[in-house]
């Protein structure tokens, strides 16, 4: 490898702290940065910006970037626009007290051009220059490129049909194609419009108007451009109506009635499907019956105390009252469950088919920025992250509308190089998925499927290409898994070389050789330069909490037009001549971290991605995924867009998908699938104001994340919010805004003084980046639904407004993106307070969703026929308990904060408020649950019971409550689609978590609120992909000691001892009280049944339990038993405390 001279750059920035200048409106005011670059003059700083170019020889794991990804073709080079190739091979670094730099990485050997260029013949096996007639479009209207010889062959022997569109050539003459001369393109006068067919015997339909113009006051439609681009004329049978499915050769006299375009645009993208009344009505009736039964039961319990054991009666009735309140809070939001379905064909017709404003049928869908977050490559294996990235790059969505950002909060070189390898392998994997319709598009999941991979595959080359791609993926896995050792060896070699150089320099300067030389143990990149992120030695400016910000565009934005590949050969594994080989933009981001700054964990990393993406791609919608959650359904993004772009979709802040998991043991011992929450509670919330945000698998509207209010909202007044007042928040001066209302400036509204005031406040709220502030109204406009044809939608966007190429990415843009991920950018702004992901809670996801609903936004729950996303969950008992502990602690934080639903605004529905209030309340149920789990044992020890006698009234009430609960469960199973096994596992883990993690969460939350003790959690480990022959569920049987295990084990031991004591006392008693024994044993058995999965987990694979578990549990059991005997001695002889010698 060698170093060459710096590469000159022409693009500049107006950021005063950036080494670039003058980029128009891409700059940033950025006046607060205290950069050391200010001590140099402008020439020195500019020369430092690109310091060197590194030559890297091509290897199997580092191939040169293809033309499709550098977005450079011959035309771009001729136009003098090399920025995009420069961007895709440059690491940008910068931050606090550091100059923004770009390290250029290039390859020393140029790759052969293997794909067919746009100016070559498109016929297989022909590399001749294509004819350039018809204004560079070729001899056919479809634009298929063909050379003179192939054209003559098609005209002579091919029947005169175009090989591209299979339609006959329109202008075939006898002069051997002389009219399509390469050097003399045809004039526009030769492109005449097609004549109208004869209409003599045709009776037009009522819907048809041959003279009505499509021009309207609100639509500035260019008819001249339409006729030129489509070669059509006005009226029926021309370019207004496409040829597929109607036209000549069908219908009456060779004609068909024209389609109703209004009907197509009016068809909804989504439908709401209610639950059958035969299920929902009995369900609501049972809820009412159980509520009445609970009221009568608790009234009877209060009016009939146990005089013999008032303390036992008091504890039991207190717990039962709390359980009744908890059940009501949990049950009320479930009264209105609904289902939703989407129509993807309507989405395609509306946004990807030719129309008046988009005659070429270019994708008119809005852009989506996909966020993937990772923090520690040791706990989150790079191979898992790589598979998630590959599933995103291969998703079925317009390539130019998609951008993927990976947030590496650890700043690890391992993650960086793994992402580079992923980008290289994606050039093979993504075209393979598109060509053969692969599902799922995660290579590890696809190749690991245990089913017939030939199902529904019709192409003859599928088996051969699958074998080749599988071999390439196996090599890819080997390269990824060997990266840690490769980086270590490389760094050791470079560090040893640096030590030798330091010693040689010491000798030249005549220093004392006996003095040790301190050379920092750096981590080195493959090009022989220091990694600007975290080093393994954790030196200053290179540790996990102290490193510069890094941005690397691994894959540059693609071209607007499709790029087709080449035939299979030595360098191309598959034949991609008919496949678009473009890849979405892929960006590596590691935000700057410095000591003394609160970086706010995952929420801070997500907000950094929001700002970076706003400057680099500015997709109006954002999908966030955990690194272990991959796209299982390639149409998932389209399903989500159906809700966002449908009528009324501008009020939807996010679309939440259910979480589905892989790698769970078949019995689902610890309820990892969590189906009761995702299929019951979340479906029910969808019938109110929308589901909660659960941290991953969610498509956001960008402006909703920015803290703006929806265009319309509803305030709920009166009892239970029955009186509704509609608000139109995009029309100031009509309704009064609340004190902290953020109204979005509307594009095109020049007479709104309030909008001007809001625009002036943007820098204060969003920071000092002008580019970020300028991107906000653009994102709002691009995220709007389409206008109605009648022009009723005052704030919709015109059709075809997004069917334009994306602005190219240059160095000034990336330099601006570096400035917004600095550690101090959020100072004195509203990021984390109102804007972006909300700070202050370990469950930032729930708080962020709550804030949006509180402003009046709605959310939607999208359950697809094929799972949209799949991920992994901890199947180990200890990991699972710590996960639940983190969630419960966040709920306690919410309860003691301003995010408590008691303080919600009137824009939140009553039942939605109840659901959010229950989120903060449910951990406190654990305090009463622990007491109630000990009550059966206490009852057996003392011979008393919660009631004085087991009367018929008590048993009838108990039977009614139990039966109604069982019937409710059956009906929930019917309308949600879960199984009885899932419901029972959820009940079991509710008690396991309620006696272990939830009490600890309450204690930690109280310590934070009262004493200010900060709460820190370790990252949940993601399970790596098991190798062949390994046990897939090995983690299930690993027993890790945790303090959370002590309470459940103590409850189990005390209840088992109590059952033995109670049975013995009753058998040997003079007057046995069997009713009290049966009552105590029944409730003890109820407790032990719920704790059975926990006990099974403690046994491990071979029944081994850590000794410390028995020691602590036995000690606590003995202490509690002795205290009880001392406080309440057994009746009979009282000389048990006296000691007598025999």
C-alpha geometry: globular
Largest sheet: 12 strands, mixed
Low-confidence stretches: 1-85, 106-118, 173-221, 231-259, 732-737, 746-753, 789-793, 1133-1142
Q: Strand portion, in percent?
A: 5-15%
Distance between the termini: 95 Å
| Average pLDDT | 77
> Biggest sheet, strands in spatial order?
1-2-4-3-11-12-8-7-13-17-15-20
| DSSP E strands, number | 21
Pfam family, one: Cellulose_synt
GO molecular function, one term: mannan synthase activity
Main location: Golgi
Binding site for Mn(2+): 602, 626
Description:
Mean pLDDT is 77; it is low at 1-85, 106-118, 173-221, 231-259, 732-737, 746-753, 789-793 and 1133-1142. It is built from 33 helices and 21 strands. It starts with a strand and ends in a 15-residue tail after the last helix. It has 1142 residues and is α/β, with parallel strands linked by helices. Helices cover 40% and strands 9% of the residues. The strands form five sheets. A twelve-stranded mixed β-sheet has the order 1-2-4-3-11-12-8-7-13-17-15-20, sandwiched between helices. Belongs to the glycosyltransferase 2 family. Plant cellulose synthase-like D subfamily. It comes from Vitis rotundifolia (Muscadine grape). Residues 173-185 have a biased composition (Acidic residues).
